[in-house]
Write a structure and sequence with these properties.
Chains A, B: One of its GO terms (biological process) is threonine biosynthetic process. Two copies of one chain form a homodimer. By secondary structure, chain A is α/β, with parallel strands linked by helices. Chain A is 36% helix and 26% strand.
């Protein structure tokens, strides 16, 4: 039963993702209509530079006045693919006020103001969908929100930034250093001219905040997410990882504490065993590994970015929101009923791989081991080797049992004060065992 | 805003999955209520043997009269985890007639009678959800039906049977033969006493029919699925696969033809490159690889069977169906609007790895090559080796370029007629390149 009056869609932004959304809406119009139960029509496209030629988009639809577009009153769904905080935030809330539902791909905004946006959507009885905001094309938010709705998620661990995965994969497979791998990523278009948001983990942290919120039914703010970039990962770290049967990935990890009463969210490079499904995620691909009480271990894999993949996620949301509008229903809103405490990084419990430069003389290992013991950090293995360079230095590689981040930090501070410890070459967490 | 009148759930079947569904409904009652917006109550449990002790289930709820239970009229959702065709089919249609929506884990029934069940659901304005019917806990049907609703899926290729993946993985990693690996699977509880449904591909074929229907918006009947089991895969095949940089998996493959006008669905063992994400799926895990126009390559990975994982999928559906009931909406029904032709196996185009036992004398290769050429099957590589056993026999391994199954079948028939070909040791398709 097909309704003939089309649903009207306003597109905010017409860059890489927006133009692909517009293209698919045109080329797959019949398919979309069949799936929704009514045709969808592109009713307006707000852009900053209207002079740019946009193939396949009727110039009469193009406007620079995004505010007027969302205020028109006849718009059913606003698709926001501008990115950034403002004007996206105001446009979205204005859209709700004027009767539209919203599909957004805006991770930064959702991570920072998700609660307020959800509240605005709820107040006006409208939908806010944002599958494209995390892990691009990979259906992830919907499975977490809906398929696992009857389960209890204990951990979400993911490679959610394609740029850094490309760089780390390159370092792993070629032995290249960070800068060399970054240069290649830039040359191939996988890294932006200013790669800070990616390599320093800001992008991944925003996604971690969104994922943690959905997984644990708890508000997790961007500030709650511990963040450590991957610019200091070295070829030597990869060599250490290989000796452990591991590789290194930049991971976003959202965990429920063992007692169930609190959660943590963090982004940092970590060693993971080569046998872990995340270890084989290559190039710019993303993957998210989910552990739950009943379902067990699940993984979702796919392209994390790019115009067409992101547009695919946007269109999936668009179909759902349009179907909701036709039936007069709304999809699941924000779910924060669990209201768990978000604990700081110091409470995180994991294992550590620590490389120390030490004096090559008797008794050093005993000193170092004493410091670990005093801080309650139990050592799993230790490996000591002379540097062979005649400088009287040796390296000591310590792998710990599980310990809190606070204990480890205390241990490292005390180690630095030892005369015999010349330096802490690297500290790397070990995950996924 | 919490409604206080509970939604009533009737559970049909209380075996491994059903008892886990009942357990989670009890232990996670508050969570479920928060996610749904109303409490859910187990209103009745239909079993065959009421005398069996069922921990945690109020004996007053247990009945042997499933028909009376679904006819009660006050049931909101019927959860069918009996399996098999009858009485499940009649109970489900009766449930729709008496006002209930249905969550089912019944792949055999969905594959055989999905269209009729969807029609019955639609006629009564009720939901029919069945995430648990394919790949257990892995959220797959919902992402395909909803997240990728704006995309065009071209291929679904999956490991959808855990028993056979366990056996093949064991053969690959230990060099064991089929029988030895099957015995271990049986001893560990991964294979049933009668493993026919698994090892002959019947189970996977049912899932392939369901997946193809959803992916291509086309009715695909169980009879449309080509099916070949994995009982004839040998240690020698694994040795051949290793030489190709491949492993062997039992795959369910649903493909859109290059011209877009028809689809095929098939289940058979195949070589896939070790670099393919499906190659690293170990043990009894399942994974489904999806290729679409916009999203690109996605993979969904997780446990394909087991009480708790399957219950997780059932509960995700239960939450969705309950939410739909509260809002007066229904989720997406059957989508068969594309109505594509389902082509027979002969139309499938892929590559082949063929091992021939041939006479060890000059001119054999030329004869064999001529037969391939006459049938329009182009040879990629050929490798000839003497048997070293002095019997005057050699083996010839041919890997073809892409060719239709019909051409390959014709080629093999003609090869068998050659005097110099003593036997066709194996034919294995090569996928995922």
């Amino acid at each position: 039963m097909m309704r003939t009056r089309p649903l009207k869609v306003a597109l905010l932004g017409c860059g890489v993702v927006g133009s692909e959304v517009a293209r698919i809406m045109t080329t797959h119009a019949d398919d979309l209509a069949a799936r929704i139960g009514a045709p969808v029509e592109l009713a307006g496209v707000a852009v900053r530079r209207p002079s740019r030629v946009r193939e396949g988009i009727d110039p009469a639809l193009v406007t620079t006045d995004a505010t007027a577009l969302v205020k028109r009153g006849d718009i059913d769904v606003v698709v926001e693919v501008i990115g950034g905080i403002e004007p996206a935030r105001t446009l979205i809330t204005t859209a709700f006020e004027h009767g539209a539902s919203v599909v957004s791909a805006n991770k930064a905004l959702l991570a920072q103001d998700g609660a307020a946006l959800h509240a605005a959507a709820g107040e006006h009885g409208k939908d806010l969908y944002y599958e494209a905001a995390v892990a691009g094309a990979i259906p992830l938010i919907r499975p977490l929100r809906e398929s696992l709705a009857g389960d209890k998620i204990n951990r979400v661990m993911g490679i959610v930034n394609g740029t850094t995965n490309f760089i780390l994969d390159k370092m792993d497979s070629t032995g290249a250093g960070y800068q060399e791998a970054l240069d290649e990523a830039t040359a191939l278009g996988y890294a932006e001219a200013d790669p800070t948001a990616d390599v320093e983990g800001f992008d991944a942290a925003a996604k971690a905040a969104i994922l943690a919120g959905i997984a644990f039914h708890t508000r997790v703010r961007l500030d709650d997410v511990y963040r450590e970039g991957m610019t200091e990962v070295t070829a030597a770290d990869f060599a250490s990882a290989k000796e452990m049967g591991c590789t290194i990935k930049l991971l976003a990890i959202c965990e429920r504490a063992a007692d169930g009463g609190s959660v943590t969210a963090r982004v940092h490079p970590a060693m993971i065993p080569l046998t872990h499904p995340l270890a084989s995620v290559r190039g710019a691909y993303n993957a998210v590994f989910v552990e739950s009480d009943a379902a067990g271990q699940l993984m979702f894999y796919g392209p994390g970015a790019g115009g067409a993949p992101t547009a695919s996620a946007v269109l999936g949301d668009l179909v759902a929101v349009c179907r909701n509008r036709l039936s007069g229903a709304t999809g699941p809103g924000e779910s924060a009923y669990a209201a768990l405490t978000v604990s700081p990084m110091g409470d995180v419990v994991t294992r550590y791989h620590i490389s120390l430069d030490v004096a090559d003389k008797p008794g050093v290992l005993a000193q170092v081991a004493t410091v670990f013991a005093e801080h309650g950090v139990s050592i799993d293995t230790v490996r000591q080797q002379g540097r062979q360079d005649g400088g009287g230095e040796a390296s000591l590689v310590v792998v710990t049992h599980r310990a809190s981040d606070a204990s480890l930090t205390g241990t490292v501070e005390a180690l630095r004060k030892l005369d015999t410890v010349r330096g802490v070459a690297s500290i790397m967490r070990v995950e996924g065992e």
